[in-house]
Write a structure and sequence with these properties.
With 291 residues, the protein is an all-alpha fold. Helices cover 80% and strands 0% of the residues. It has 10 helices and no strands. α5 packs antiparallel against α6 and α7 runs parallel beside α9. The chain is elongated and about 145 Å long.
């Protein structure tokens, strides 16, 4: 800053010091006011904060890349899908066990057999629910052949769950009977349940080994269940019963439930055909199905 010579030229040294001190005070005040103005501006418009630089930037980026989620390997995907197939096979064994326990329930009114059938029915419900929840995600990660197997798993568990319900209905009716059924009726119902049990055993074997012969046997065995059921209907509908006697009616309802369980088992055999051959046998003309 320049000093006006006209102001300082004739002044004494003490006056010059006073003037310089005054100018210094004003200058410091002006600088302070500018600093405060800049601070206010900074507070009103804060600058974005940057992450501190690191000497290991390259290493951190590599670690971040490694932590990013990656697609699961194909082997793991197959393992997950195989878990669903194993659940379906497990459901088949559970349905088979339920049919097996019908024999003890009908012949000896076993409380343990009734509880075993009830547990089987509840477990089949749980497996069906579990597959329903997991299959949509699994089916989007596989090829066409694998998708066909997963769809077969879904349909199979639906039929097996229905078989569990039907067998449970037989158990409830047998358990609620105040009197014993005729020995001939018990023998026929036990025979139907035994055939159903063998059919489910073949279904499990067929899906485990992809054996088409198992499916053919099941389709033939269903005819035996139908024949027994029709014989029971002809016998009880032709007989004369006392008024209020519902024993024959209960027998027919149990026979019909076992016959329907056999129909669901044939659905499983047709699903096995579809899985192996890649074509559906459901709802086709009988001549075409036989060929």
């Amino acid at each position: 800053m320049r000093l006006n010579p006209n102001v300082t030229g004739g002044a004494s040294p003490s006056n010059v010091v006073t003037i310089l001190s005054h100018l210094r005070t004003r200058l410091l005040g002006w600088i302070a006011s500018r600093i405060r103005a800049c601070d206010d501006t900074f507070l009103r418009f804060p600058m974005p904060r940057k992450a501190p630089a690191s000497h290991h930037t390259g290493t951190q980026e590599a670690e971040a890349t490694a932590r990013q989620p990656r697609d699961k390997p194909a082997t793991e995907k197959l393992r997950v899908d195989d878990d669903l197939a194993q659940l379906a096979l497990k459901a088949c064994l559970i349905a088979r066990d339920a049919a097996f326990n019908v024999r003890d329930l009908l012949t000896s009114s076993s409380r343990m057999a009734f509880l075993a059938i009830k547990d089987c029915e509840q477990e089949l419900d749980r497996i069906e629910r579990q597959i329903d929840e997991r299959l949509p995600a699994a089916i989007t990660r596989v090829n066409e052949a694998r998708a066909r197997q997963l769809l077969s798993t879904l349909k199979s568990t639906t039929d097996l769950e229905r078989i569990g319900d039907l067998v449970m209905s037989v158990a409830l009716r047998a358990q609620a009977r105040p009197t014993k059924m005729a020995a001939a009726d018990v023998r026929q119902l036990v025979k139907m349940s035994s055939v159903l049990r063998d059919m489910l055993d073949l279904i499990h074997q067929g899906f485990s080994t992809l054996d088409l012969e198992c499916a053919r046997k099941v389709l033939q065995m269903d005819k035996e269940i139908d024949c027994i059921c029709h014989g029971l209907f002809q016998e009880h509908l032709a007989e004369t019963v006392a008024q209020g006697d519902t024993t024959g009616f209960e027998v027919l309802l149990m026979a019909q439930a076992l016959e329907r369980a056999g129909d669901h088992t044939t659905n499983l055999a047709e699903d096995l055909y579809n899985l192996i051959e890649g074509r559906s046998r459901r709802h086709v003309p009988k001549k075409k199905a036989a060929s």
